[in-house]
């Protein structure tokens, strides 16, 4: 365990599994108290919290739908009230809806929910967190390599949401820099999670698309997030850290 974030409070949205759970553990390993949100995986969320508490860290799980800005705002306010402060916000919760743009049977409701969660939810969380963060505060949003290069058919709507949060984060970085708050994006590549298993039907195509020829591990993305949350990243803001195994190489 390190101590770079000792005394800090972090909120990781979508922290019950995958990159979110790995990030919660990594932040706790550096000394932070960690709150996570979930929308449907209550048991998994509680398991993550129990694991964090076993390490001696404060931790809690909160239900909030990332697609509902009112719930997102209430989540941020509740975490800040519970712990008395908020130092790190990790926007990880997201939806993934695929399908070609010319599909007459496309699930437009899913596309709308994806936009609401991936863009609207991020904006709501950033605005709410900005009321609580002080000097040295950190906002990190988990993006996707697909925002820079789609590479596959059927991902236009998802890629658009991830491109949008890059623009939003750059703008927010300008707004919040005078207060000593940094805002960055960690752009992940193909990572082995429940949503995108390394033995899934499109796994071989994804592996072949990046230079390292393998899926990333959630812990490898979490490492980049923790770096941007740490004091070592105090002069980094409005930027995109890409961790994609060489997909964009």
UniProtKB/TrEMBL annotation:
Signal sequence, renumbered to the chain: none
Pfam families: adh_short_C2 (PF13561)
InterPro entries xrefs: NAD(P)-bd_dom_sf, SDR_fam
Xref: PANTHER family: SHORT-CHAIN DEHYDROGENASE-RELATED (PTHR42760:SF50), SHORT-CHAIN DEHYDROGENASES/REDUCTASES FAMILY MEMBER (PTHR42760)
Stated family: Belongs to the short-chain dehydrogenases/reductases (SDR) family.
Protein's recorded name: SDR family oxidoreductase
Organism per entry: Streptomyces oryzae
